[in-house]
Structure formats: C-alpha cells, structure tokens
C-alpha cells in the first residue's frame, strides 16, 4: 500500500486524479449513502423525497465512482441500484408510511414499494452514467499495458533432453 519510489500512486490504487490514492470500496459506498442521506434530510422538511434527494443521490454515486480506487470500480458501478433499493423503502418505513395497518400488510407494502418504483428512472439513469464512467476510467483513461507480457521460455525437463 505504499507509494513507489517515484512518488506515484500504483495504478490499481489511483482515483480519477492519478496523483491521489483512491477510496476503498466500502468507503465509496458510505460516501454515496451519506450524501444520499443528506438529500433525505433536506427533503424531510417537505415530507417527501424530492429534488434534493434526486440530485444528491446522483452526485453521490458519480462522486464515488470518480474517487474510488481502480480496483474497486466494480463496487462503485453496481452500488446505485442497491443503495436505492435499500434506502428508499427504509426511509418510508422509518417515516411510518402505511403505518396504520398491520405489519407487512398489502397497504403497507404498496405504500413502501410505490416510491421505489417511481424512482426507477433515476436509478437506471444513475446506474448507466456510473457504469459508463467506470468503463471510461478502466479502459480509456488508464488502459492496462496493451503489450503482451513476455513469459520466460521453459526448457524441457532433464529426462526429456537426451
């Protein structure tokens, strides 16, 4: 995990800025959740998830894919639908939507899943943008060495050299 003698960060540990060490995968997920929860807190004043959540969820996911280390790009790429699928229902459960009926009643399930379904365009758009950024980082900005690695020639075993 230390820098090389030249002072450069190894390729697998870089963020989008080549001189900065990237975040580990778990930190990128926490960053996205923290920024998204900031949007939830702002929107809690109005009583419903709105523009602040939408903008901050998108920015949190994009920021995470740009700041994560190259070896953690997969986690940053698949996190938007997972974070959305966990966060939105959780917010509505905590807010007590559909709370007048029994636990896991049809009314409560619909009241909790409908906000998630209405945010599907946000989720898919964010996922496509994040995966595109991850692919650009992985294959365009810092492609791995395109030269094939020269492998040492193995000689025949001693009993076959006669």
Which features does this protein show?
162 residues, mainly alpha, 5 helices, 58% helix, 0% strand
Topology:
Blueprint: H1 25-43, H2 51-67, H3 73-95, H4 106-118, H5 120-141
Helix pairs in contact: 1-2, 1-3, 2-3, 2-5, 3-4, 3-5
Describe this protein's structure.
By secondary structure, the chain is mainly α. Helix content is 58%, strand content 0%. It contains 5 helices and no strands. The protein has helices at residues 25-43, 51-67, 73-95, 106-118, 120-141. The longest helix is centred in the middle third of the chain and has 23 residues, at 73-95. It is elongated. The N and C termini lie far apart (48 Å). The mean pLDDT is 82.
Oligomer: single chain
Largest sheet: none
Shape call: elongated
Distance between the termini: 48 Å
Number of helices: 5
SSE-based structural type: mainly alpha
Mean pLDDT: 82
How many beta-strand elements? 0
Helix content: 55-70%
The poorly predicted ranges are: none
The fraction of residues in strands falls at: under 5%
Radius of gyration: 23 Å
One letter per element, helices H and strands E, the order comes to HHHHH
Short description:
With 162 residues, this protein is mainly α.
């Amino acid at each position: 995990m230390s820098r090389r003698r030249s002072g450069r960060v190894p390729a697998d540990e870089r963020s989008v800025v080549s001189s900065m060490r990237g975040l580990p995968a778990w930190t990128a997920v926490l960053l996205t959740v923290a920024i998204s929860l900031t949007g939830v807190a702002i929107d809690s004043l109005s009583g419903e998830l709105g523009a602040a959540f939408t903008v901050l969820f998108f920015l949190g996911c994009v920021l995470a894919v740009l700041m994560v280390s190259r070896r953690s790009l997969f986690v940053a790429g698949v996190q938007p639908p997972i974070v959305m699928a966990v966060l939105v229902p959780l917010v509505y459960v905590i807010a007590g939507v559909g709370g007048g009926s029994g636990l896991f009643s049809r009314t409560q399930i619909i009241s909790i899943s409908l906000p998630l379904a209405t945010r599907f365009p946000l989720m898919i758009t964010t996922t496509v943008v994040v995966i595109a950024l991850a692919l650009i980082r992985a294959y365009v900005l810092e492609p791995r060495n395109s030269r094939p690695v020269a492998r040492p020639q193995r000689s025949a075993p001693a009993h076959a050299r006669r």
